[in-house]
Protein: Glycerol-3-phosphate dehydrogenase [NAD(P)+]
Amino acid sequence: MTNDTVVVVGGGAWGTALACVAARAGRRATVLCRDSAVADALSARAENPRYLPGITLADDIGATTDPAVLGAADIVILAIPAQRLRAALPGLAPQIAPGARLINTAKGIELGTGCALSRVIAEICPDHAQAILSGPSFATDVARGKPTAVTLAARGEASALDLCRALSSDSFRAYASADMAGVETGGALKNVYAIAAGVVIGLGFGESAKAALITRAFVELRRLGAAMGGQPETYLGLSGFGDLMLSCSSAQSRNFGYGMALGQGEDVTGRPLAEGVATVRIASRIADESSLSAPILQATKRLIEGEIAPKDAVEALLSRPIKEEF
Ligand SMILES: NC(=O)C1=CN([C@@H]2O[C@H](COP(=O)(O)OP(=O)(O)OC[C@H]3O[C@@H](n4cnc5c(N)ncnc54)[C@H](O)[C@@H]3O)[C@@H](O)[C@H]2O)C=CC1
Ligand SMILES: O=C(CO)COP(=O)(O)O
Structure:
């Protein structure tokens, strides 16, 4: 398989960082932007001042707003917000070269339908093989070339390994997996728990409370993920535990930041993209429908919907009946 040419759809923080990844791995990389100002800045100054201000990017990244560029791609990386995927894909699909492989990197579950994003992609691009890249990786770190490791899942180990080799370099290491559902659900659900961890810190409850929250969140994430089709061991890896740990422990995470603002009683309107806000709504419905116990997720949902105050949400969790840990 030829993997020479990579087109990244989405000129935001993550799409830009992933174009740097592809370029560092020796691929010809182009970002397909929606906004011509972003494309111009990337092409002329190797900068994305809107989404990654102050970071000088590899200068061999191309940028365009013309979807015709998809016709030359061996690999198409999707890096647009999860809830935008269904609306964006029909305009792109006819342009994508027949043999190109798609790698989704958005983290979420479709709000209106409860569909995994891989299913949304399969519905709109049924003839293209697809993969998922997910793991602990902040765009700013990746764009700067700081060491990062992620999981890349595809149907079939050989395909996953081939894509891992195509994108790995001395600063970016992708591990192969054949568990698409496990990788996908881990990335989506960790955002919910990052919001919850942010709330705990925003309330001033401290690091011990946060460690307890993350540990119990991990139990829930594995339970929900398994019900959605993931393999248990996948959640122990980079796309599960790794990403949960990163997002629940750093104010760099937009989801954690959103939770912190909630905990501090701030107005959260207009904050940067926090995918967990949509995910918690649909994941709570899925948990209810399957009678799965997910108290942290349900408390986070009620908090986000304004049904309960942050302090009361944490107190409700602490006052649940005493039970065995496992
Ligand atoms: N920023 C990060 O560190 C990471 C982000 N991700 C995931 O990547 C996805 C994108 O996140 P970011 O790039 O950080 O968000 P962002 O807010 O920085 O950028 C989003 C980009 O998507 C574009 N976009 C939105 N709707 C579109 C549409 N309908 N058609 C074409 N382009 C559209 C916007 O113009 C913008 O360029 C999210 O699902 C996020 O969870 C995953 C790993 C790391
Ligand atoms: O997914 C991420 C890191 O792996 C980015 O997290 P946020 O979307 O919360 O910023």
Q: What stands out?
A: The first strand starts at residue 5 and ends at 9.
